[in-house]
Design brief:
The complex is a heterodimer.
Chain A lengths: L2 H16 L4 E8 L7 H12 L8 E5 L3 E5 L5 E4 L13 E5 L3 E9 L8 H9 L1
Parallel strand pairs in A: 1-2
Antiparallel strand pairs in A: 1-6, 3-4, 3-5
Chain B lengths: L9 E9 L2 H16 L3 E7 L5 H12 L5 E7 L4 H8 L3 E6 L8 H11 L6 E5 L16 E7 L6 H4 L1 H5 L3 E5 L11 H11 L6 E2 L8 H13 L26
Parallel strand pairs in B: 2-5, 2-6, 3-4, 3-5, 6-7, 7-8
Helix pairs in contact in B: 1-4, 2-3
The chains are: A alpha+beta, B alpha/beta.
Chain lengths: 127, 250
């Protein structure tokens, strides 16, 4: 049940980015190949949000499809799991999309001063 | 409040924030710390009861004379495994995750501070016995070794593709029990290939010693390349060097 840890990470990340702003809605992308079960996230989210600025927020989850490309025949096709056999018989397949595990956006009461993500901040320092 | 009707007006704030960003940044720091000290860190993952601790006991006895070895033991509760591995002759740190089902990069960082493994050593991380959750959490390890035992059945890779897809090495343990089981190794190999192309199982018996020379040789080869490991690539990467030397079925 790693979804509880994932839900806690979501709440912490929103707190780090949005400070004290009260959050009323969270939009998540949980790709079909991400290894995370949306229903389990919904189950854990309220628990993780209790007593934080995200407490009571509505959770919307989009589930982007998985897509893969076969290195043998070059075909691209939709996949619903990580058993990636191509119709041509090859298992030499790369995942193109569907592994997302991303907080797309949040809705806050009033305006929110957001802090850039650590990743963005560190890549900005490099460039 | 909105100035017109007094409702609580909301603002949409785009974040595009990866949920595991914090863990992955911490894992990157762990990886850099280990690489700077030329430490080979092996993340051992499997279901409960597949033989991780027995394999570690034997591996520690075999390697400890030639290279410093230490172990981070992850379990929900107890220090039983830590005591077993310590008795085999190495330093250990026990991490109890309580209700948690996996180790994460922050736990790894704390364990590294406590253990302080010496430069040039080999560090094993025995993850919590679980084929689901540990797959998602990068610890900053150099390599991932997944153990499956023949008693678990030939279809395990298909049932837990996330775990098997991230493996650099697949140890197939308990092969000494094969005469008593109805398990088709060709089926296991096909299942593994369909979720992790290019990887073939390395058959071993941690109790009897079969195949362990291959495991030690693999570790020494990896240790020879230590320090050169960059950040983990995304799932689906391919590494021809991770092939085991022996195929089970043709």
């Amino acid at each position: 049940m790693h979804e509880l840890a994932i839900a806690q990470s979501i709440v912490e990340a929103i707190g780090a980015r949005c400070g004290d702003a009260r959050v009323t809605r969270v939009r998540l992308a949980v790709g079909r190949l991400s290894g995370v079960v949306p229903d389990a996230i919904r189950f854990c989210f309220d628990l993780a949000a209790t007593g934080t600025t995200v407490d009571g927020a509505r959770l919307d989850i989009e589930e982007p499809d998985g897509w893969a490309r076969c290195r043998s025949c070059g075909g691209e096709y939709r996949v619903d799991d990580l058993i990636l056999l191509c119709a041509c018989g090859s298992a030499d397949v790369e995942v193109l999309r569907g592994q997302d595990l991303t907080i797309r956006s949040v809705e806050t009461v009033g305006s929110a001063e957001t802090v850039p993500s650590t990743e963005t901040a560190s890549s900005a320092e490099v460039t | 409040m909105c100035g017109t009707c007094g409702c609580a007006a909301t603002t949409t704030v785009p974040l595009e924030q990866r949920v595991l960003e914090k863990n992955d940044l911490m894992a990157a720091r762990n990886r850099e710390w280990l690489a700077n000290r030329d430490i080979l860190a092996v993340n051992l993952m499997s279901s409960p009861g597949s033989g991780k601790t027995t394999l570690l006991e034997r591996t520690v006895r075999a390697l400890a004379a030639s290279v410093p070895v230490s172990v981070i033991e992850g379990d929900q509760e107890t220090a039983l495994d830590s005591w077993r591995v310590r008795a085999a002759g190495c330093r250990t740190v026990q991490v109890n995750t309580g209700t948690g089902c996996h180790l994460d990069a922050a736990m790894m960082a704390r364990a590294l501070r406590e253990l302080d493994p010496p430069p040039g050593s080999v560090l094993f991380v025995e993850n919590v016995g679980n084929l689901v959750c540990p797959a998602l959490f990068d610890l900053g390890e150099s390599v991932r070794a997944v153990i499956a035992s023949v008693t678990e059945g030939a279809d395990k890779p298909l049932k837990y593709p996330h775990m098997f897809r991230t493996a650099d090495l697949l140890l197939l343990n308990k092969v000494d029990l094969l005469p008593y089981l109805d398990v088709d190794l060709a089926v296991f190999e096909r299942a593994l290939t369909s979720v992790r192309p290019g990887l073939f199982p390395m058959p071993v018996s941690a109790t009897r010693g079969d195949g362990l020379a291959d495991w030690y040789a693999w570790l020494r080869a990896r240790q020879g390349r230590r320090g050169s490991s960059g950040p983990r690539e995304s799932l689906g990467r391919r590494d021809p060097d991770s092939r085991s030397p022996q195929r089970l079925a043709g």
